[in-house]
Amino acid sequence: MSTPPSPAPPRVAVVGAGTMGHGIAYVAAIAGCRVSLCDSAADALADAQHRIESLAAAGLQRGKITETDRAAVHQRIRYTKELDDAVMDADVVVEAVVERLNTKQLLFAAIERQAPKEALLATNTSSLSVGQIAAAVREPARLIGLHFFNPVHLMRLVEIVRHGRTPTDTVDRAIAFARRLGKEPIVVQDSPGFASSRLGVVLGLEAMRMLEQGVASAEDIDKAMELGYNHPMGPLKLTDLVGLDVRLAIAEYLHQQLRMPHYAPPQILKDKVARGELGKKTGKGFYTWSD
């Protein structure tokens, strides 16, 4: 008996070409998907294309991908400013825009009007209520959380976040998509911070308080977790990669929702964000970065 052919890779639209969006587009293309990467800002698209090409070049240099893979990534990803153009024939639409509930709700209302009725709709939110985001669409059962981690091409975990109106088949589609991209999915309920952010933010904020109190330097605090607990990256360096503004927004949201003192953002974080020290993307955060 012959083996049935593998299903064709899904057509993927990624809306938002920032830190997470370009990474999701890259791993989808590596996995064989045709990808439309959408952003309303032309400079964001240009920056995303540069970053994706840099990821492919680095992967080739390290032997992670072949020259054929690199060429395929270039061919499989197209860049567009128009939402309808990006999502009109997508099997999966992944939203990766700013962590603002109203922004995501308005975007998904537009996506639902323009994407195929059978398309899976997914938000990459790291802390907001997936159920509240889904409330903006006519068919909330088709929307789910797909929380990727930064840097997307290296981090294996994807949180599948189901809300109160998520059917099993939607969860199954999300799991299959995550595995297609080479990720290891976990399924969590729609609760503030899910599993990863709720735990990770506490560690990051405590590291900031320790730095604020002069317990140790940023480098030594990070080294304590890297060498003492086998973490691949310390919490302060990770915050720089995620973005201090993103971490602040998540902390404020969790503090508001959970009313627990350990989610209150420390002054050092608020001061750095106010000064525009947002981490790697601005060249300075808890560390100084250069290209």
Give the structure's gist in a few sentences.
The chain is of the alpha/beta class and 291 residues long. It is built from twelve helices and eight strands.
Please characterize this protein's 3D structure.
The chain has twelve helices and eight strands. An eight-stranded mixed sheet has the order 3-2-1-4-5-6-7-8, with helices on both faces. Helix 8 packs across helix 10. It is globular and about 55 Å long. 44% of the residues are buried.
Largest sheet: 8 strands, mixed
Provide the gyration radius in Å.
19 Å
Number of strands: 8
Structural domain tally: 2
So what's the CATH class of the largest domain?
Alpha Beta
Task: Assign an overall shape.
Answer: globular
Q: Main sheet: which strands, in order across?
A: 3-2-1-4-5-6-7-8
Uncertain spans? none
Q: What class would the helix/strand composition place it in? A: alpha/beta
